[in-house]
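Exercise 7b. Backbone tokens:
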């Protein structure tokens, strides 16, 4: 566990929070006296599988709006969208 002064912690908060997210623990001191301990929160178990995929390089966290499909569905006059989707899935 690394010890860091409150002034340094405040000045570089985002940097230190990224380190905590990466698994490091910190002890924050004020004039040499420990005042806080900061450690990562355990990830909810329902997202562990996502973290494994990201770590293996098989997935990535979303970074914006979806880009859309490579083959847009052509609209046909008189057809419902659900029928077009069903046909495309065959």
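Sequence design result:
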């Amino acid at each position: 566990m690394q010890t860091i002064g409150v002034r340094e912690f405040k000045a570089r908060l985002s940097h230190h929070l990224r380190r905590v997210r990466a698994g490091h623990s910190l002890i924050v001191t004020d004039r040499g006296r420990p005042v806080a301990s900061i450690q990562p929160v355990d990830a909810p178990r329902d997202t562990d599988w996502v973290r494994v995929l990201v770590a293996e390089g098989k997935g990535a966290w979303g970074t914006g709006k979806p880009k859309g499909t490579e083959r847009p569905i052509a609209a046909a006059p008189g057809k419902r969208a659900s029928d077009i989707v069903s046909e495309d899935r065959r």
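Instructor comment: The two ends are 56 Å apart (CA to CA). Residues 2-55 form a domain with the YefM-like fold fold (CATH 3.40.1620.10).
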